[in-house]
């Protein structure tokens, strides 16, 4: 056991991304550095392009604005129109600083809410869904890419990722703390798989229309924000094809899921 832990620790140190070493995870400057890193790593940039294409395709094509919740280091507004970038921290590239549990929008005015790796950081996800249901127009959607629980992801997230990952957590809530280090990567799976009936009961105005397992390996190959990229960007199309084929026959290898929740018609 100790030898295994030492090996994992050595591997993590060897693969660590130099641009993000020794940075305070919760500092706004770290998020700005993450944004620059995404743009500078071609393979990782292609992962985000893929995520954003999926989110954009799942949103209604017309109506009011789309709120990107927790824009962080991402760049959705540069590839999709009508997007309001937001974050809980003041950042140079966001339009508004907001609390996810108290959205500053009139009822029924949003065409959608887009989220990339955000739900599992919210201290009170139930408050978010309640207020999102108020703000969304009928037929509008919450679309998100989030970590997912599978046998493969349990090992990867539990062994190599810095964020907590607890599929057995009893609650959807977390003690409020720092915006990024406070997390439970298993929370989306808890809400939309383990506790799916409870979600349907608590939020009758919302309908879960899609939970699609995604990306067994390409995010790992990109290195994400904490590791070096393992492959050049020009190999992404080939790797993405294999990734899609793999998860279609072995969904238990997924590390993420695309989740779409629609506001029911009045």
Summarize it.
The chain is an alpha/beta fold and 266 residues long.
How many strand units? Answer: 7
Instruction: Give the CATH topology.
Output: Rossmann fold
Helix content: 25-40%
Averaged pLDDT: 92
Shape: globular
The CATH class label is: Alpha Beta
What kind of sheet is the major sheet? Answer: 7 strands, mixed
- Count of distinct structural domains: 1
Task: Report strand %.
Answer: 15-25%
Number of helices: 9
CATH H-level superfamily title:
Vaccinia Virus protein VP39
Uncertain ranges: none
Element order: H for helix, E for strand: HHHEEEEHEHHHEHHE
Write down the Rg.
18 Å
Structural class: alpha/beta
Give the spatial strand order of the biggest sheet: 3-2-1-4-5-7-6
- End-to-end CA span: 56 Å
CATH architectural grouping? 3-Layer(aba) Sandwich
Would you write up a description of this structure?
- The protein is an alpha/beta fold and 266 residues long.
- It has one domain (2-263): Rossmann fold, CATH 3.40.50.
- It has nine helices and seven strands, in the order αααββββαβαααβααβ.
- Strands 3-2-1-4-5-7-6 form a seven-stranded mixed sheet.
- Helix 4 links the parallel strand 4 and strand 5.
- Helix 6 packs across helix 7 (196-202).
- It is globular.
- It starts with a helix and ends with a strand.
- The relative contact order is 0.17.
- The mean pLDDT is 92.
